[in-house]
């Protein structure tokens, strides 16, 4: 299972390098099902892996001038604040056992995995539909819809804090529609936002005194980063649109499996 886990870690980076997102949606299932990490701790690990990998992926975008730093600050500030507060205060406040009903015991781990599975299904639909409405948005002078940006940034930050996913499938359309960014610049800016909020969110876990398996964490992160470089090179030769749609169907199957598996586990 560990060997499969390391192979899957490469896929996390490959997806980030090939299609600019999607890697974070694989990280939690890889950690939980292949490495046997508890869901709550896996969300912390995911923040570090996704944040570090996204930071590395953002560097070539910076060199190509595909990061809009003003937008990153405007959108990223509420998102970073939300993810830090969620990791430092909200998640630790959720009891391990939420409630019981007869023989059913609804736990924090179950809640996080179900929430993550729902997020996977939502992300898969976004990838399968290929984001056509966002791509058709007019690229005019940059303007900020501050109330919506604040709301979206906060929602994405809370989701990232709860389940450890970067939320690129939510961020990129928001940057195109709400900030009038071209698609390529939205992808680069999204990577920087994901890196900042994920790594700052991870500091909330460190401050909370969580014990980390650094050997596993650094190994998975290093392999994911290697996958990013491979994916960046392959992206010049592979049809990204078709690949993204295929990856979307894969994520849909994964999310549906996790949802069904957790419901069956609850009912046993």
Layout of secondary structure:
Elements: H1 2-19, H2 23-34, H3 39-63, H4 69-93, E1 97-101, E2 104-107, H5 108-128, H6 132-135, H7 146-163, H8 168-179, H9 183-207, H10 214-234, H11 240-267
Antiparallel strand pairs: 1-2
User: Judging from the principal axes of the Cα atoms, what is the shape?
Assistant: globular
Question: What percent of the residues sit in helical stretches (DSSP H or I)?
Answer: over 70%
What is the gyration radius calculated from CA atoms? 18 Å
Write down the domain tally.
Answer: 1
Question: How would you state the average pLDDT, rounded?
Answer: 84
Largest sheet: 2 strands, antiparallel
Q: What's the total number of strands?
A: 2
Q: Low-confidence segments, ≥5 residues, pLDDT <50? A: 131-138
Oligomerization? single chain
Structural class: mainly alpha
SSE string: HHHHEEHHHHHHH
Q: How far from one another are the termini?
A: 25 Å
Give the strand order of the largest sheet, numbering strands 1, 2, ... along the chain. Answer: 1-2
Give the percentage of residues in beta strands.
under 5%
Helical stretch count?
11
């Amino acid at each position: 299972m560990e060997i499969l886990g390391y192979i899957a870690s490469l896929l996390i980076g490959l997806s980030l390098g090939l299609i600019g997102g999607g890697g974070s949606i694989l990280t939690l299932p890889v950690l939980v099902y292949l490495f046997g990490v508890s869901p709550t701790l896996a969300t912390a690990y995911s923040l570090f892996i996704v944040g570090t990998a996204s930071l590395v992926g953002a560097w070539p975008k910076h060199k190509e001038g595909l990061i809009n730093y003003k937008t990153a600050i405007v959108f990223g500030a509420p998102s970073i604040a939300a993810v830090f507060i969620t990791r430092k205060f909200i998640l630790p406040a959720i009891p391990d056992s939420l409630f019981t009903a007869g023989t059913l015991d609804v736990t924090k781990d179950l809640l996080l995995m179900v929430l993550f599975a729902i997020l996977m299904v939502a992300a898969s639909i976004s990838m399968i539909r290929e984001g056509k409405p966002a791509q058709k948005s007019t690229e005019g002078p940059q303007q900020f819809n501050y109330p919506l940006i604040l709301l979206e940034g906060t929602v994405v930050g809370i989701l990232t804090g709860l389940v450890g996913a970067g939320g690129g499938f939510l961020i990129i359309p928001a940057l195109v529609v709400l900030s009038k960014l071209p698609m390529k610049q939205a992808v680069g800016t999204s990577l920087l936002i994901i890196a900042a909020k994920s790594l700052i969110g991870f500091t909330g876990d460190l401050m909370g005194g969580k014990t980390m398996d650094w050997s596993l964490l650094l190994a998975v992160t290093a392999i994911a980063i290697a996958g990013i470089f491979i994916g960046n090179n392959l992206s010049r030769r592979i049809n990204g649109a078709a690949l993204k749609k295929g990856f979307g169907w894969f994520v849909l199957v994964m999310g549906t499996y996790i949802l069904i598996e957790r419901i069956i586990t609850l009912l046993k």
